[in-house]
Fold each of these.
Amino acid sequence: MQEPIRPTWLEISRSAIVNNVHELKRIIGPQRKLMAVVKANAYGHGALDVAPIALDAGADALAVAALSEALELRRGGVDAFILVLGYTPARLARNAVVHNVRLTVCTPDNLIAMNRIARDMDSVLTVHVKVNTGMNRLGVNPEEVVPFLRKARELDNVRVEGLYTHFATADETDKRHALDQFERFLQLLAELDAAGLRPPLVHAANSPATLTLPQTHLNMVRSGIALYGLDPDEAQTPVPPSFRPVLSWKAEVAQVRTLAPGDAVSYGREFIAQAPMRAAVIPVGYADGFPRKPLNWGSVLIHGQAAPILGRVCMDQTVVDVTEIERATGPVRQGDEVVIIGRQGKAEISAEEAARRTGTINYDVTSRILARVPRILVD
Ligand SMILES: Cc1ncc(COP(=O)(O)O)c(C=O)c1O
């Protein structure tokens, strides 16, 4: 393993990414394309590491949220198909033309302004039109799509390659709303067929729809969370057991100290020892994505056992209780491995478990791990 340049790091499993891409490709079959969603630094996993591995393993395309993320991939040598899923102001579209990045459009003004930019460059910008079928976030409403695409036809410097929608509830057991959304999208596609306006690529499915609603696969699926081996929803739509989590978050013990009764730990003296204790300092804090409030991680793993957090999580450091661990397994020493996400011996803290403890979802847990935590590729 490459030596981490900090005493806390993420291990990103190459074989888990390859496995998950293969599983997704097996689920969608050979006729459909897989778009690997690598926005938000690949949900915290490191987009420049994940993207080439996913592409080599068979992903056909990449998606990001912002043009800046696409340009970072281009600067890193990734020359694959990239679609920006979020809003791009027309004033930034020049970079998309130069670097051959596909943009999402969802208003006629945006489309017309982008056409002007591409015309001034004597070039053509490729776009995908996002349709709002019930998420009510970005998207052209279905009844506006025909005039929108007719307008696009008149513009020489934008090419509408794709049309897509996004589900609000595909991760829930009750699929009715997702299927209503899909029905709206299918009706629209029938209208577009009749009008000769259907773009070549149509896509709708995110990870949960990819896993549970095969009828929504269309030409391509856009999968993020399942690519990372994480559950779209732990209770309602877990990934099948054949998927493997890609990320582990580790650290090493920075210092171990003995606390006497009455000794307080960390800012604000919120924790006060009632008896003699042993405490380990770990070099991880809220500026790494290890939250402080309202809920913290609760505990980390040392020697395969839970080490509960003592007092407040600081910006770069946290103190944990190793009293019971030392009784059970012997002294904890500087340099001993700490697991924040992942397995250690028989114990595990999954991203889903961390999400439950911190009152959020696994997407949020991994994507908030900050860039200063080095990402190390492992097999
Ligand atoms: C438009 C769009 N498509 C696909 C995805 C991927 O979703 P998931 O990670 O659930 O696969 C997202 C993620 O939020 C998205 O915004």
Amino acid sequence: MKSGDEPILRGCGIRKAFGSGDAATAVLRGLDIEIRRGEFVAIMGPSGCGKSTLLHILGLMMPPTAADELTIDGVSTLRLNDSRRTQLRREKMGFVFQRFNLLPVLTTERNIRIALTLRGIHPDGQVDAILKDVDLLDARKKKPGQLSIGQQQRVAIARALVTRPALLLADEPTGNLDSGNTQRILDLLRRFRDRDGQTILMITHNPQCTDWADRVLQMKDGRFE
Ligand SMILES: Nc1ncnc2c1ncn2[C@@H]1O[C@H](COP(=O)(O)OP(=O)(O)OP(=O)(O)O)[C@@H](O)[C@H]1O
Ligand SMILES: [Mg+2]
């Protein structure tokens, strides 16, 4: 069952500890999070507080140690098997990281197209449209090593969004960028949110993110303040 005001993501009581027995360290301590459709939410918090760990759990790349609920676009995920979880991740989510993870031997165009073919979608105009959105039509035949850092991050964003994911998860997408490129990436994300209703959850250390995000969640002691 889906309705317009059902949150795209709801996590309750999320716990994560690394190690076991006496050596176990609790990183997430019963954290709750809810993201509504079309929201641009930023997560902030000191280094090592568990932001990336949380994003990996929400992105179904790492299981929580325990959780009461983790629902994504109406699908309860905690009891899914591996293949169903992978399928849900591919169907619903796009990812952008601080290091762009582009395939160095592929051109811009092919780095983006691969996101579609991985999901069995036959490319039909989407690649051109997204290249235009991120202002990289001129760079379509270039490989990542021939692009600037800011351009590479725009390719990564195009690759994450070309499939129209319900939720974009971004881990410090501007962490490697100078202030000009940071502003440009945040403007771009904001534009996808305003124009397409793209839901975005972004980790950042940039205190200026409040200028772009609708809401900022501050992490402290394994929960949100
Ligand atoms: N695979 C792992 N095994 C053991 N400990 C881990 C693992 N991944 C993360 N940790 C620990 O969990 C804590 C949180 O790490 P995490 O990467 O989530 O922090 P972060 O908030 O993203 O920090 P930063 O802002 O520096 O990126 C750290 O103490 C880290 O050492
Ligand atoms: Mg991190």
